[in-house]
Amino acid sequence: MKPPGKARTSVQDAVVLETGAWHVRLGTTPMHKEAVPEISRHFNAIARTRHGVRRQVLVGDQIEEECMDFGGLQLRLPIDRGMVVDWAAQKAVWDRALAQRFGKKDTSFDSFGALQGRTVIVTEPYFALPEQQRAFDMLLFDWYQADAVWRTIPAQLVPFADPRRPECVLVVDCGQSYTHTVPIIRDQVQWDGVKRLDLGGKVLTSLLKESFSYRQWNMMDETFLIDKMKPVSCFVASSANDTSPRKPDDRPHAWSFARFVEYFHENQDNEMVQHYVLPDYAHPEDAKNPHTRFGFVEAGPGSRNQPATTHGSEDQILDSFIAGQHPDPVPESSEHQILRVAQERFQLMELLFAPQRIGLEQGSLAELVAAAIHSVPPEYQDLMWGNVIVVGGTAGAKGLRRRLAYELRMLAPTDVPVDVRIAADPVIAPTLGALALLQAPLDSANGKFLAHRLVTRDQYAKKGGSSVTPGDRAGSSVGDARYEDWNAIKPT
Question: If you placed Cys at 146, which of 23, 115, 119, 214 could pair as Cys (CB 3.0 to 4.6 Å)?
C-alpha cells in the first residue's frame, strides 16, 4: 500500500466523480494539457429487465449499451429525494464506472484501492446530512484509498468551466430530484441564499407517465422510455398569458401558454401534434436499432418528414421544434403502439413556472431565482441579475432560457440588465468545471483555491478516520473546516 496522500497529486492522477440522482459522470484529466478531458456518463441505477428469455441485471452504463428490453425496466436507484438511500447500489455503480475508465472490464475487478494515488473531486447532494457526508469520506478514503478529496456541490464547480467567470454568478441546477438556485460570490457558495423548488426531472417524468396512462396506453412502468421521450417532445411557452395583442402571423415561439391551450382546444389535430411510436422489444431488431430502441416520432415535428433544425436563430430553432410546416397524416395502423403527444408538449414544463398546479405551495422558478438574489448583500445583487446560468438535465428543455429571462425581467429592477444562459452542455458543466480546476497550475488562483480545500488521507486519518463514536465527526471534521458546507461552523 502506498503511504498516505500528498497535498496534491499530478494532473494525470486526478479524477472527478460527479454523482447525480440519474447519472454519474466520471472525468479524468488527459495526459497532455492540449488534449480533451475524458468524461463518461453512467446511469446511476441497477436495472433488471422483466421476466423472459432475455432477463438481465445491468449496472450503470450497461443499461443503455447492453439492455435488450427497456419495457417495464425495474430500476434500483441509489439516490432518492436528493439523498443517497442505498450505498451498496451506489458503490456498485461507482465500481462499474471506475472499472470501465481504468480498463478493468472483467467481472473480477476489485475496486479496493482503485483511487490510490489520485486526487478526487466528488459531488454530494445539496444539504447532505452529516451522516451522508461521513459515508462519502469513508468510501473514498478507506475503501478507494484516494490520496486527496474535495467533496462539494455541483453548482460550486460550474463557474470554473468558464475562463471568463464573473465575480458573482447565480447557478440554477435543474436536477433529477429538485431544482436549486445557488448564489456564488468570489467562488464561495452563499448558503443562506440557496433555495429549493421541490420539482425536478423525476417528478416531471412521473407526471408525464400518468398523463399518458390516463388518456392512452398504460405507461406507469415505463420510466426509462418516458424519460427518453421528454426532451424530444416537451417545450416551454414564452409566457403564461398574452402580454400583447395577438397577430395571425405570430410564430409559435412567441405564443403564450394560454394561446397554446386555446389552439389545441380548437384544433385537435394540428401541426404541433406528435405521433410517437413505442418500441416493440418482442422484435430484437427494435432493441438493436438506435433509431427505434427508445421509440421515435413517426409524424409531426421531429419526424423524418419534418426534422427539427439545429441551425439558425433561437426563434427559428424553437419554431421548428414546436410546429411542422403542416399537419402530418395520422399514421396508418401498424403492429406498433403509438402515443399521441399533444397538450403534454407544453403543459409539463409549465409546472416549473406554476408549481401550484400540482399542489406545491411554492413560488415559480423565476421567483425562486429572485429570492436567492435578494438574499445576498445588496452590493452584489445587480451583478447576480446579469449572470444567471442554468445547468442540469432539465436545462435543455426548449424555450426554458427565454421564458426564465422573460419572467426575471419583470422581477428585476428596471435599470438592471438581466441575462440568462444555458451552459454549453448543461449535464456535464460541473464535471468540466472540476476538470478545469484540476488542470490549473499549482501557483495560479484556481490551483491555490483547490489546494486550500483538498483534504489528504493522512489528515483524515490523524483526526480519527472513519471512527464511529456517536456525535464525533472524526476524520470528516477536517472537511468541515475546509469544504465550507452548509453545516460548516461559521466564525462568530
Answer: 115
